[in-house]
Amino acid sequence: MLYLFTYGWPRTGKTTVSAIPAALYFPFLSTSRKRPYTSINSEARFGYFMCLDTFPVCVNEMKALNGQDPKAIIMIEMLKSAIETQEPRSIMNNTLTHGTIYPAFRQLNFSSNAPPPRDVALRARFIIKNFTQKDSHNEEQKKIFHEFIGLNAHKLRVLGNFAIGYLCQHPEVLFKPKIEDVNWEEAAKEIITKFYELAGLPRPSEWLDLPLTDDEEDEDYETDEINNTAEILRTCLLNHFNEIYNRYIRNLGDTVTDGYGNSTNVITGLNLRQRIDFCIDKNLTPHFKKNSNGKLIIFHSILDELQRRGIESDQISSLKQLAEMLEMKYGPLRQNNKLVKCVHDDDLTKLSNFLAGDDCIE
What we know:
Blueprint: E1 3-8, H1 14-19, E2 34-36, H2 43-50, E3 57-60, H3 70-84, E4 89-92, E5 99-102, E6 108-112, H4 120-123, E7 126-131, H5 139-152, H6 156-169, H7 184-198, H8 205-208, H9 215-252, E8 255-257, E9 263-265, H10 272-281, E10 288-290, E11 296-298, H11 301-308, H12 319-326, E12 329-335, E13 338-345, H13 349-356
Helix pairs in contact: 6-7, 9-10
């Protein structure tokens, strides 16, 4: 089941929206169902927090989950596990003979001013809702809402109790032999539809059938991530070649003699492709080579170079992924009388075009 993540402009109702699922079973905005991120910001706290009961909890102030802090990265991986599996954490007991498993009972809903982490795999496990300044409400609207919700929030528990009873009587609605057949969204719609039927009311299609996620927005985010990674990769490779070129051109560049017999070293005037050619032909980069047929070969060591220059492993994690971004081939190729897996292409055209980007350097 996906978790809800609301974020954006302050005082737009983000936390209220994230806390409403818990109101199906507890008093609205109960302190036991609305917790700060500091309640779960370590492996031990998160494992214990997730197994306390089986009801929804709102967790707010999630900004610390962003960034490349190793602690945040660990929490992101634990969240993925808790959403997709039944186990967020396990430990070995004192006797070291068997492990203690902390089950992932709770369903968490998050609210934050900051957006969720850019980890695409984590975001795929969230229903993400962005609240902008236009979603702000004036004081009169807030007063009316709080008066209404204060008088009526307890009625939501009728639906919560009905949902539990309905699933106990009809477990096949949610529980399937194969986990890939489970569709919690359709199960929820069926429960709400039956709830309205028993009350003698028509199915509330005007809001029940609204999409939970904005597929176009999700697709735009993934496209932006791909484009951003491509730009970072372009910058890293350009810096790699330019640094090598500038370091060695004075000693290894071609020497020309003018009409007066003066010799000078050619250090300027080479276009991008010529600079790349220079670095590879002079064997100045261990990551890029040409074989006897002039075919370009990119070795696995380039991944270490990219990470050294700031590209994270979740952006480019393999040679196959790099080949796709460069629109080159990936696979085994014979080099120095042995087969090596590498990125390769017929010549330097695709590499130089990729590095030139929109502004081709001639």
